[in-house]
Amino acid sequence: MTRISLSWETYITVFNSFSIIRELLQLYQLRLKYFLDAANYMDWAINLSALFYVLPPAGCPCKSPHQMEAAAVCLFLGWLNLVLYLRRLSTYGRFVVMLMTMFQTLLKVLILFILFILAFGVSFYILMGNITSYSTLPRSLMKTFIMTLGELNFEASFVTQEDIGYSVLSYGIFILFALVMPIILMNMLIGLAVGDIDNIQKNAVMDRYRVQVELLLALEESLPKWLLRRLKVKEHTEYPNHKKSIWTKMWMIFCDLGRAHGDGFDQSDQVSVTLSQLKDRVDEQDIRSKEMERILNEQLEVLNELNRRLRGNEEGTGRRIMNWFGLQ
């Protein structure tokens, strides 16, 4: 093992040790709330897989297959975790929310996809088991999944094969598969994703503020009280007409704290959009309140009419009783 690789493994070990200590402190501070955040589970998976790969630091230079797998999992989850952190930035947060929403939509219809893949995959395995792509059940299911994405590969499965068992039924199931999976189900998934994106774009500004507020609250809860008292800003002066430095401009462009650079809106435009959304909601509530007032007035008129009729019936009954006794 070279000295450079040993130093890198030592650095990774120390860094992961501090990261694990940080996670334990968060667990102590947040209690049960810690287990409600899926990002914490990803952090633990990254730290443990990295430690499993580098330990022992001074061991054999050759890594076991399980350690190589742990390294691949660590890198994969690490980049995904970076994507989740980008959700807090103004420029990229909307796109990350879009991806997460589409992924949730995919999970909702995943059971439906699995059932169709099992139905067609098992059928192809039984009818076309002599073809290499369908020779085993796992291969057949994987081939069916790849074909769902649009790669039907009709020539390799049917044209170049001289002997296809149950050819008539195989052609029929393949035609049904080509109609159902790539056309109907995939277009249904695309339609659901487009609808989710449209809803996200309508509420992009409010979602951005919500994510930033949640981040600030989580950061405030994780810090000790004595440090918060020292870091509390009692007074802040803003000079909007002062010329900003080049570093401030670069920071604002990168983090998009001052304006939504990607859409060409400045901060005043964002406030205008938010006020417009609030105005629409107030107008909607005003319409609903007027409708409720109209319904209540109608019910009041019905009750008054019933009361008038009941009083009329009571007076008529009293006159009949007095006439019967001869009192009038």
UniProtKB/TrEMBL annotation:
Residue ranges constituting the Ion transport domain according to the UniProt record: 8-203
Pfam families reported in the protein's UniProt record: Ion_trans
GO cellular component, one term: transmembrane transporter complex
Molecular function terms, GO-annotated: monoatomic ion channel activity
Bilayer topology term: Multi-pass membrane protein
Coiled-coil features, chain-numbered ranges: 275-313
Keywords: ANK repeat, Coiled coil, Glycoprotein, Ion channel, Ion transport, Membrane, Receptor, Repeat, Transmembrane, Transmembrane helix, Transport
Bilayer-spanning residue ranges: 34-55, 67-86, 106-128, 168-194
Subcellular location as annotated: Membrane
Protein name: Transient receptor putative cation channel sub A member 1
Organism: Desmophyllum pertusum
High-level lineage: Eukaryota, Metazoa, Cnidaria, Anthozoa, Hexacorallia
Recorded name of the encoding gene: TRPA1_24
